[in-house]
Amino acid sequence: MENIYRYSVKLLTGETLSLKSLQGRPVILVNIASKCSFTPQLTALEKMYRKYHKKGLEIIAFPCNQFGKNEPLENEMLKEFYQSHFNLSFKIAEKTLVNGPDAHPLFNYLKSHTRGIAQNRAIKWNYTKFLIGTDGELLSRYAPRTKPESLKQIIEGQLQDESSTFQFAKV
Q1: What are the backbone angles phi and psi of residue 5, rounded to the nearest 5°?
Q2: Which residues on adjacent β-strands are paired with residue 16?
Q3: Given Cys at both, which of 26, 62, 74, 103 links 158, Cβ 3.0 to 4.6 Å?
Q4: What is the pLDDT of residues 117-158, one digit of tens each?
Q5: Could you give the CA distance from residue 106 to residue 112 in angstroms, rounded to a whole number?
């Protein structure tokens, strides 16, 4: 059974995050860009993260400059921009390639495991969202126009019941 747990990502903080540490949690993975018309979606993603993080939700954003050169910022400037404009508290990876021969292996996995019409297809724009289930497998892929708040019901279905005795590992 393939899932995201075999991958690691380098965060803007300099840490390497093993996705195995997110086992048992629903995860949203999204490629982002500071100069994109969809950038206001970060406000909704942050709101969702603050509401559901204590129940298990994780979000990891991947700045990417492959679409319209909409992410010209680098490391410290990326951190500063996303903090000062959106006060993001979820994880942000280092700038990442999501398509092409040098794409991060995580995104190759996500593209190859998308079911339906988009299967094995390149990511077409910023703010493509991937919802990962608590088992680490890809549940759904969402187009950039899909508003984060429209994922509320499916995310709530993946969250642990508050009365559950399941304990999450420290991330």
Answers
A1: -70, -15
A2: 10
A3: 26
A4: 655 688 999 999 999 999 999 999 999 999 999 999 999 999
A5: 10
Q: Using pLDDT thresholds of 50, 70 and 90, give the confidence band for residue 114.
A: confident
Residue type, 159: L
- Does the annotation mark 64 as catalytic? no
The one-letter code for the residue type at 68 is: G
Half-sphere exposure of 144 (CA within 13 A, CB side): 14
The neighbouring-strand residues paired with 17 are 9
Q: Kindly name the residue from 28, 29, 32, 36 that is annotated as catalytic.
A: 36
CA neighbor of 137 nearest in space, from 17, 11, 19, 49: 19
Domains plus CATH for the chain?
Answer: 4-158 (3.40.30.10)
Q: Are 8 and 110 in contact (CB under 8 A)?
A: no
Q: pLDDT tens digits for 68-113?
A: 999 999 989 999 999 999 999 999 999 999 999 999 999 999 998 8
